[in-house]
Amino acid sequence: MSRGRKDDTMNDNDFNENTDPLRIIPLGGLGEIGLNMMAYECGGDILIVDCGLMFPEPDMLGIDYVIPDIGWLRERAGRVRGICLTHGHEDHIGALPFVLQELNVPLFGTALTLGFVNEKLREYKLDDLVELVTVRPRQSVDLGCFRVEFLRVAHSVVDGCALAITTPEGVVIHTGDFKIDQTPVDGQLTDLASLSRYAEAGVLALLSDSTNVEREGFTLSEKYVGEAFAEIFPKCPGRIIVAAFSSSIHRVQQVVDVAVAHGRKILLNGRSMIANVRIARQLGYLTISDSDLMDLKELGHLSPEQVCIISTGSQGEPMSALTRIAMDDHKQIKLEKGDTVILSSRVIPGNERTISELINHLYRRGAEVFHEKVSEVHVSGHASQEELKLMLNTVRPRFFIPIHGEYRHLVKHIQLARKVGIPEERCILATNGDVVAFYADTAAIVEKIDSGRVFVDGKGVGDVGNVVLKDRKHLSEDGMVVVIIGINQSSGALIYGPDIVSRGFVFEDESQDYLETSRAVVLEALDELNDEMRCDSEEVKQAVRQALRRFFKKSIERRPVILPVIMEM
Amino acid sequence: MSRGRKDDTMNDNDFNENTDPLRIIPLGGLGEIGLNMMAYECGGDILIVDCGLMFPEPDMLGIDYVIPDIGWLRERAGRVRGICLTHGHEDHIGALPFVLQELNVPLFGTALTLGFVNEKLREYKLDDLVELVTVRPRQSVDLGCFRVEFLRVAHSVVDGCALAITTPEGVVIHTGDFKIDQTPVDGQLTDLASLSRYAEAGVLALLSDSTNVEREGFTLSEKYVGEAFAEIFPKCPGRIIVAAFSSSIHRVQQVVDVAVAHGRKILLNGRSMIANVRIARQLGYLTISDSDLMDLKELGHLSPEQVCIISTGSQGEPMSALTRIAMDDHKQIKLEKGDTVILSSRVIPGNERTISELINHLYRRGAEVFHEKVSEVHVSGHASQEELKLMLNTVRPRFFIPIHGEYRHLVKHIQLARKVGIPEERCILATNGDVVAFYADTAAIVEKIDSGRVFVDGKGVGDVGNVVLKDRKHLSEDGMVVVIIGINQSSGALIYGPDIVSRGFVFEDESQDYLETSRAVVLEALDELNDEMRCDSEEVKQAVRQALRRFFKKSIERRPVILPVIMEM
Lengths: 569, 569
Description:
16 helices; globular; Ubiquitin-like (UB roll)
């Protein structure tokens, strides 16, 4: 497969910047978990690896998704040859619907990865506009001066790949997310043989997944989860509900295998679970016979010991299928004593309290619950320290750049690389926006480009900034008080109000007295202004704000947002 | 020590409810972590055990503390004989300053517990008003018909006790928080001997700590943390900062011992750390020689390898000492490469992201960081499964009531009790407000009283309810839009506005166009009303709200709080 360089692109603006032979520029995922996106720039060509999103952190109030800022790419759009995707997780493909609207370039990935991507593009009505190119492991594509070979890695989503990127300056190995599972469910081992082949010829740089660098030893094989299921299932008297990430096709396969062996039918719950199972079956990554798969509507025809429901909602998302079941608010499923719920997924940081509440509610419904903390019903998809060392020793790169991790993970991964003998000066701690340039036989961070995060809120992409978020935070803590005052602009006389309305503060029910007192405070503040000052809206606003702020702080120690509205009449 | 029943109390209202010989009524802490408070009622007397607070959950926006609703006690104030405190943690003593304002009764506890309580009461200027009675382990107090013996238990705070409560109906063992540490730092073992003595005579009920019921095996001894310090300290080239809970006096002692052995001076950072160390030293629970303790102001006179700072802020609280250090915003302490920070505390659920960010910032400053996840620098203060079984088997109660736990912990603790042979019908799963009554030789939940949580926000106790919180939540997600309209009440003509102001929405900077369009939407909605309807404020408000809601949803998919203000002119 080969894609030539388009002639017109040589005229692209600011091409002169490209005096360094090879530049690697992280646009997301270095210094944070999620939002993975990396640009490789060489000889006028730009190659992008992954294009992920991040779910909002707790202080990003009201935000739906976070995507990388692609301002830098936007200015160089004509030189982008394509996006290579390592695997089909949201933090690697989730920003595509937003980024492709501005940057229409072909996508390269394995069949399942592109299956998931296509589903996503269909939702955003982009599926007819974007070219998807399916690549098999050990197959290469040429993108301008880059040759990219896809190499199998084991991970929690099926069909994941590392990339061996051959550039005019040397080979870069970009691991994507990986673990070195010795007994993967599909038998597809991490392709250490190919990595060794590249290592023999010499690797310029290794960019390796840092997610689990704080964990000692080896990550358990995915097969362990199947064994845990095999232990739990025979002891369950009633229905079994397994909640898992809908992209975890291996996990689903293992549930199916154990369930069918124990005479249970499979019923799917949750939109993305139904979609992903359909895609994975169509592409041959998941084996469920039609006779074992039933529609949730048929639940009533089965006795409890014949039922295995595979569901989304393992993070306790408020509107999810599993939360509705836990709150006894699900159309088809009503939990009873004897039922078992297995949360076969990790707790995403930030969701601890929500999931904890979910489990409490499941117990209130009478179910028994198995989860990561009390049973081995989940294993990680990321390499632990010993696997990371094995990757470093297999690839033996000249330079090492840790990727996919918060700042501390990157630091720890470099400490690990130092332990296996990579000299300090060849370990590069880069974070988003750092441009790593490779010269002759050195590499260094040579500049910092604008990078960052863009918030998606509803249909708005990027219009919610820090001021809005700061206001939302302030509003969320003590609510808002609006004061409406009408002032005659010639006499300075008060001719309307003050009217006070509030939300999220205290003025409810029996707080009428407090409202009256607040009004008096405003009147007093106005009295202290002379006629001229009262004709100046800004002056009045400031006086009102100050007086109320002081009064609220002293009387009840709260600091609501105070919004004076002055009508000039 | 003895406190007789006051004569006047026999006239207390609704005393007739007390037909059951013994009633146990959880007012907090059963079905939640924190907020521990239990009432024992017998023969006209009420005894309270503990009076804790809870730090707000993420959805309790702007709330400072959560305390138990004591409405039920308020109506029976004259019959309350006193509050016995098991130990000095916030979730057992933190609500005292609020509760004592309504219920002035004597407090009973060990010296350190009351030392912490007194500090708290001083802050609220209550210290002169409340009677504190110091009790030593194995000492008893009589409170009405109750005799309460305090029995030593090991826990993460020094001087903790279980209570053996002798009632006319039998003995109840109330463990408080405990672990069965075989090598506690102060040598004070959990008093299994006394518990056995009660068991021999027969125990009516055991109420036991469920916090760690999901953990298998035994909880590690506090001494392990000292050993971890002893391994880490000699390897640290620069300054060492240990962050710990200021109430963890044993932890502080172990830091001090290792630091002094390595020639480091102790400097304290954080208000509560300074206060608690002072109290513990005064009472003889902590040994630091004056020559080893230095003021933080003297930091400049010490070389890095002479410094050990013990600090608060292990939870990444925004204004805390440690966070300021991590953000390079601390007056005296500036981190450098070579410095080491040890987070010697657990991650309180809900704080995961904040602490994770704290650690990243510490690494950015150049420090090395040890924390619970990567090193054994913290152990729990609560009993794991094997210890809980040992407690059950030692006390051999007739009835078992799990306490201190979320719903799932209570369920799991009963499963554990069943395993050691307590029959199902003698395990009582009670949650807050359930009245457990003991008859002859049965016990059962006989009614549910009003219980719940009261929010403290600034100086306001209980004035923030669910409507205010719901508004804050709504405001936090999409902000607020205020629309001001003046309408002539005789003609229905629009004579002012519409003015639109917003906070936390989108109307910033370049959104002027959108603001204009929104104004047009309001005008259109007003046009559709006839003159009569326009004179009805409610009618106008509803029309404006509906039109804007529809417009915002369609154009940008957001749902701000819309607050129309109609001036009748």
